[in-house]
């Protein structure tokens, strides 16, 4: 699944670059950002750090299609003292998120230096988890699942050059919904990103 996601994203980026080379400047862009995620489920939360890479194909000055791949990884440790004499039991939960989404994006003030935008993206997330403890009798548990994902929000891009070829994504804040097919539950969270944009 991970290879499939990478291949799909590579094809999408290649199409974007090819399209940009045959159209006027400003019709496509690619970006890379640092991305922080906070995912919550059943009252628990897990923070993940990673990156996002994506592209926008602008069909008009303001309206376009946004495709994005995000990788994030996080872990949470816990400990509990039990028994007599006291024994400390530790547990470690690690999670990896591979997300590929696409959908409409709309930017305001496309001719100005500062460009606010909003977007709604749909796709899938491959969630890989690993749970382990320091208790020999408890085996390490690993699991993978691919789940429907929705991302919606917006942000602020600032053009750094007069030609608008290079811009800085000051901030992007999105709500993230991941439907967990393993437990018939969902993860709700917030994603925050910042990074660089190159326009063609």
UniProtKB/TrEMBL annotation:
Outer membrane protein beta-barrel domain boundaries: 9-177
InterPro entries associated with the record: Beta-barrel_OMP, OMP/PagP_B-barrel
Parts of the chain that traverse the membrane: none
UniProt keyword terms in alphabetical order: Signal
UniProt KW Hydrolase keyword: no
A Pfam family the protein falls into: OMP_b-brl
Signal sequence coordinates: 1-20
Domain of life: Bacteria
Protein name in the entry: Outer membrane beta-barrel protein
Species lineage: Bacteria, Pseudomonadati, Acidobacteriota, Terriglobia, Terriglobales
């Amino acid at each position: 699944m991970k290879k499939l996601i990478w291949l799909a994203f590579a094809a999408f980026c290649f199409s974007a670059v090819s399209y940009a080379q045959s159209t006027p400047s400003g019709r496509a862009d690619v970006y890379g950002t640092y991305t922080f995620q906070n995912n919550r489920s059943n009252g628990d939360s897990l923070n993940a750090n990673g990156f996002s890479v994506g592209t926008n194909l602008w069909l008009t000055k303001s309206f376009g299609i946004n495709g994005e791949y995000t990788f994030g990884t996080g872990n949470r440790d816990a400990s509990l003292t039990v028994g007599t004499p006291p024994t400390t039991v530790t547990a470690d939960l690690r999670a990896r998120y591979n997300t590929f989404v696409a959908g409409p994006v709309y930017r305001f003030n496309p001719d100005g230096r500062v460009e606010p935008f909003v977007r709604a993206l749909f796709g899938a997330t491959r969630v890989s988890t690993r749970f382990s403890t320091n208790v020999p009798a408890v085996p390490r548990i690993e699991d993978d699942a691919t789940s429907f994902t929705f991302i919606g929000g917006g942000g602020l891009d600032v053009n750094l050059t007069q030609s608008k070829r290079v811009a800085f994504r000051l901030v992007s804040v999105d709500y993230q919904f991941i439907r967990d097919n393993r437990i018939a539950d969902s993860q709700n969270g917030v994603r925050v990103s910042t990074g660089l944009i190159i326009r063609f």
